[in-house]
């Protein structure tokens, strides 16, 4: 199984992966702040059909010259008509407002928030505690709470982008080890994992994330999440066929 997963990871972890994936957006920028802000926003919108949310992300990042500029002057952009599925204009504005507070008022960063023992609670608590939209469906969907046993797929995907290095991931965060990452569990990864008998749990929740990550560590304890490419890539290929 290790040889099979290694072969699949090598097959799918290529630069060609970037152009159809939301990771294309942080790849467009050079500074650390721009990369992590672009990556965070992109990961939160990465649900539904790719062509739809990529179009929305194209629009968001076209508003300013850089993501840092976007959050710096978020209130000057007309976002009143923005909508993507559950996420409405007020949810996007709230996201930009809180990122403004984090980077400009608090002089902190996403890396600092994630670099804590209970990183997922820290990040969601920060955004909920500073939000006036915490009861909105769109805002709650962007920030699933760890206490609800959510798989936290998009936050784990964002962490993979920031921490891992290679042909696809950006690897700009050195404060978190690759061995600490958790698998971004989506339907493709879950399905292939069960077909390969890597995951026994039937629910796609946080317990399944921990179970699958522990299993993948048996194949590479230092970089278990490289197998996200193997499982996700094969799942996408099978779906296309």
Brief digest:
The protein contains 12 helices and 2 strands. It has helices at 2-12, 32-44, 50-62, 67-72, 89-105, 110-114, 119-129, 137-142, 153-163, 187-195, 206-217, 227-240, and strands spanning 83-84, 87-88. Strand 1 (83-84) and strand 2 form a beta hairpin.
Order of helices and strands: HHHHEEHHHHHHHH
**Category by helix and strand content:** mainly alpha
Strand order of the largest sheet: 1-2
Number of strands: 2
| Cα-based radius of gyration, to the nearest Å | 17 Å
* Overall number of domains: 1
Low-confidence stretches: none
* Percentage of residues assigned to helices: 40-55%
Strand coverage percent: under 5%
- The backbone outline, from C-alpha atoms, is globular
Largest pleated sheet: 2 strands, antiparallel
Task: List its traits.
241 residues, mainly alpha, two-stranded antiparallel sheet, 12 helices
Can you give a write-up of this model?
This protein is mainly α and 241 residues long. The chain has one domain (2-240). It is built from twelve helices and two strands. Strand 1 and strand 2 (87-88) form a beta hairpin. It is globular.
């Amino acid at each position: 199984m290790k040889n099979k997963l290694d072969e699949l990871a090598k097959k799918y972890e290529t630069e060609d992966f970037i152009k159809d994936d939301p990771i294309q957006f942080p790849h467009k920028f050079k500074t650390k702040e721009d990369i992590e802000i672009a990556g965070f926003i992109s990961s939160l919108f990465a649900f539904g059909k790719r062509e739809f949310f990529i179009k929305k992300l194209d629009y968001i990042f076209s508003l300013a010259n850089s993501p840092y500029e976007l959050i710096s002057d978020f209130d000057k952009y007309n976002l009143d008509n923005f909508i993507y599925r559950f996420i409405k204009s007020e949810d996007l504005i709230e996201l930009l407002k809180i990122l403004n507070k984090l980077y400009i008022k608090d002089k902190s960063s996403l890396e600092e928030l994630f670099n804590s023992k209970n990183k997922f609670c820290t990040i969601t608590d920060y955004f909920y505690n500073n939000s006036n939209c915490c009861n909105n469906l769109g805002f709650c969907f962007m920030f699933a709470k760890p206490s609800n046993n959510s798989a936290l797929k998009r936050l784990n995907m964002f962490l993979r982008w920031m921490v891992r290095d290679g042909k696809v991931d950006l690897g700009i965060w050195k404060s978190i080890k690759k061995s600490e990452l958790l698998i971004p569990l989506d339907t493709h990864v879950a399905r292939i994992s069960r077909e390969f008998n890597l995951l026994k749990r039937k629910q796609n929740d946080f317990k399944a994330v921990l179970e699958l990550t522990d299993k993948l560590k048996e194949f590479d304890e230092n970089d278990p999440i490289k197998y996200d490419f193997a499982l996700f890539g094969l799942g996408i290929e099978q779906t296309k066929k």
